[in-house]
Each structure stands twice: as structure tokens, then as C-alpha cells.
Amino acid sequence: MSTEPALMTLTEVAKAIAEKKLSSVEVTRSCLHRIAEWQPKLNAFMAIESEPALKAAAEADAALAKDGPKGPLHGVPLAHKDMYYEAGHVSTCGSLIRRDFVATTTSTALQRLKDAGAIRLGTLQMAEFAYGPTGHNAHYGPVHNPWKLGYVTGGSSSGSGPAV
Fold first, then answer.
1. pLDDT tens, residue by residue, 22-66
2. Number of helices (H) and strands (E), helices first, in the chain?
3. What are the beta bridge partners of residue 81?
4. pTM for this predicted structure
5. CA–CA distance from 70 to each of 18, 24, 99, 140, 164 (Å)?
6. For 96, which DSSP code?
7. Which of 39, 53, 80, 160 is the most exposed place for a label (fewest CB within 10 A)?
8. Three-class SS string for 138-156?
């Protein structure tokens, strides 16, 4: 088990937050630090939502102290593919024609993560409209494989693998 929160497994992080061994703010800061370090090399993220994530983490810590965990992912920071709608947020689906599209509804998947207590870090790169076996995106630049930067990450969810 790693002691750096960003390198811990999801279940380890969730347990450490629930047991108050780590705060959601500590975990979120650790993740944002890793994102800042690796994003210029990998281009895995479409959008990084640092300030809202830190605010949500502080709120999660306060709620945990007052009422206990909201759900199994209480205070756990996560990012998701840029095709899942969250009301009030841009969802490009990796396309230029949707660069200004603001969702009016929230997808079931994201709502379930929210209901479980997860915190949104941002959105991840993807092939345009999730179509393409290599994961390349001509509009927002290539995502790089963290093990060999010149290699592809593969699949339509090209940002998800490197972000992990």
C-alpha cells in the first residue's frame, strides 16, 4: 500500500477517508499535484476543476465530521470521460462542435457517483464521439502512454488509462 494518497487504490482511499486517517482535502490535493505534474506530458484531461474539487473536498470533510459518510465513495476524488453529462458543465465528447455545449441534465452514472459521495476532479480526453480504436483526437491533441510517451493509449477512452 502506498502512503501517497494519489497512488492508493480507490478502496484504500475510501476507507482512509471514512476512518479519518486522511481527509478528502489531502487526497484531492495529492491528486491535483499528480495531475499538474503529468498533464503536460500525457494530455489525459480535457478539463481540470481544481477549485471546485477542493471546495467539494472541504465540504465532504465537514459533512463526515458532522454526519458520517454520505456513501461508499464519500470524499473520494474521481475524473470521468468527457462524454458523461453533468448539469451546468461542458461536455465536448471530444469534438470541436460541442466545445461550448453545457449539459442541462446529469447522466445516471455521474449521479450515482455523486450519490455515493464522489468528488469531481474534471473530465478526461477521448476519441471524438468515442469513435476510434487508437484514442487519437485531432482537435485536442494526442494523449500519451505514460509508460512510453510515443505509444498510443488505445481505445475511445484514451485519457482514462493514463489518468489512472
1. 999 999 999 999 999 999 999 999 999 999 999 999 999 999 999
2. 5, 3
3. 124
4. 0.93
5. 10, 13, 33, 36, 24
6. G
7. 39
8. CCCCCCCCCCCCCCCCCCC
